[in-house]
Design a protein that fits this description.
Blueprint: H1 5-15, E1 22-25, H2 28-38, E2 42-46, E3 59-62, H3 65-75, E4 79-80, E5 83-84, E6 88-92, E7 96-107, E8 112-118, E9 133-136, H4 145-150, H5 159-178, E10 181-192, E11 197-199, E12 203-206, H6 215-222, H7 231-239, E13 243-245, E14 250-254, H8 257-269, E15 276-278, H9 288-296, E16 303-310, H10 315-329, E17 335-341, H11 344-355, H12 363-374
Parallel strand pairs: 14-16, 16-17
Antiparallel strand pairs: 1-6, 2-3, 2-6, 4-5, 7-8, 7-10, 8-9, 10-11, 10-12, 13-15
Protein name: ADP-forming succinate--CoA ligase subunit beta
Keywords: ATP-binding, Ligase, Magnesium, Metal-binding, Nucleotide-binding
Organism: Amycolatopsis minnesotensis
Length: about 375
């Protein structure tokens, strides 16, 4: 799950890094007012979860409030990386002396956090991959000051700059560990003309399997600091459903937050990306039609896993609700069931009779089938 730039920068600032002054706006009038309040040349940056926004025309600069208004009008509503621009970050411009690259990510090969640093930051960092320094971190000890310093060895940086970079790397690691991130990246991490190291951009990706550990983060950032969230998230709240839109293509319907998180973990484990968090436990089965409508409302969804495990809740009642929703909405994507617990024999029979398919014996089988179907076209679903 990718945070937007302004959401990531708020977390970076809370962790102790310097970020430019800025305001999030949703219309040209607000962009004009924000520029006037900042009183300086500004960058208007499209808030979409995709990279290369500058090269794609998603960032404009303005030297006056009127110019900012016109720039905002040209950016809002356009599509970048498959996402319509609905928000802009109006941010003070910085006079840059040097650009660095810094990131901390999960290293699947080393099974540890990996810290990357380069003095060749900026939009073309991929072309300077050979200049990137790497440091594997023992998760038990974390990133130490000595470890951060080792990334700067031999670069002949002035001590005041080196000290700020070390502090920035340590703060990034604290944030990475504290929010169970998959990636915390700053590019560029800039040295300004005034000698300050400032995060001019941010990319933060959260581990979907750890979202249950961060209720405050979900409420404050993933639905937006103004409480709006995406259109689908707003619809979910209006319906009383716990729906969060993620960045994958595997839809998930499960009963209870724990089972839903377990299903998301399984999708991630087998190399897929979940498209949503949506639990349909308790009396939510009575809202199966709008719940399925939320999942199908995400155009990225290419397959669906329905995972029910009942103790007090009866799986046959939940299955009946979902089957009714499927019959009414007639989805064209393949659907894969796994059903266990109270009422499972009747629930499995209902799926067979009404859809003509058999649920899988295990969640892992259903998840793997959904991932395979999402990667192909026209796969037969269950």
């Amino acid at each position: 799950m990718n945070l937007l730039e302004h959401q990531g920068k708020q977390l970076l600032a809370q962790a102790g890094l310097r970020v430019p002054r800025g305001t999030v706006v949703t219309n040209p009038d607000a962009a004009e007012r924000a520029t006037a309040a900042l009183g300086c040349r500004v960058a208007l940056k499209s808030q979409v979860p995709s990279g290369k926004r500058g090269k794609a025309g998603g960032i404009r600069f303005a030297g006056s409030p009127d110019e900012a208004r016109r720039a905002a009008g040209s950016l809002l509503g356009v599509t970048l990386g498959g996402t319509a621009v609905g928000k802009l970050l109006v941010e003070q411009c910085a006079e840059i002396r040097d650009e660095f690259y810094a990131s901390i990510l999960n290293d699947p090969r080393g099974k540890c956090p990996l810290v990357l640093f380069s003095t060749a930051g900026g939009m073309d960092i991929e072309e300077n991959a050979g200049a990137i320094r790497r440091l594997a971190v023992d998760i038990r000890a974390g990133l130490t000051e000595a470890g951060a310093r080792s990334l700067l060895d031999g670069l002949e940086l002035p001590e005041p700059v080196a000290a700020q970079l070390v502090s920035a790397l340590l703060a990034m690691y604290r944030l990475y560990a504290g929010i169970d991130a998959e990636l915390v990246e700053i590019n560029p991490l800039a040295l300004t003309a005034t000698g300050e190291v400032v995060a001019l951009d941010s990319k933060i990706t959260l581990d979907p399997g750890a979202l249950g550990r961060h209720a405050e983060l979900l409420a404050e950032h993933l639905t937006g600091e103004d409480g709006t969230g995406s259109d689908l998230e707003r619809r979910g709240r209006a319906l009383g459903l716990q729906y969060l839109e993620l960045d994958g293509d595997i839809g998930v319907l499960a009963n209870g937050a724990g089972l839903t998180m377990t299903t998301l973990d399984a999708v991630h484990h087998y190399g897929g990306r979940a498209a949503n968090f949506l639990e349909i436990g308790g009396d939510a089965y009575t809202k199966a039609v709008p719940a399925l409508g939320l999942v199908l409302g995400n155009p990225r969804v290419r397959s669906l896993v329905v995972n029910f495990c009942g103790a007090f809740a009866r799986t046959d009642v939940m299955a009946d609700g979902v089957l009714t929703a499927i019959e009414e909405l007639e989805p064209t994507i393949p659907i894969f069931f796994c059903i266990h617990g109270t009422g499972e024999e009747k629930a499995i029979r209902l799926v067979r009779e009404r859809l003509g398919v058999d649920p899988f014996d295990t969640m892992d089988e259903a998840v793997r089938a959904a991932i395979e179907a999402a990667a192909t076209t026209g796969g037969a679903g269950r």
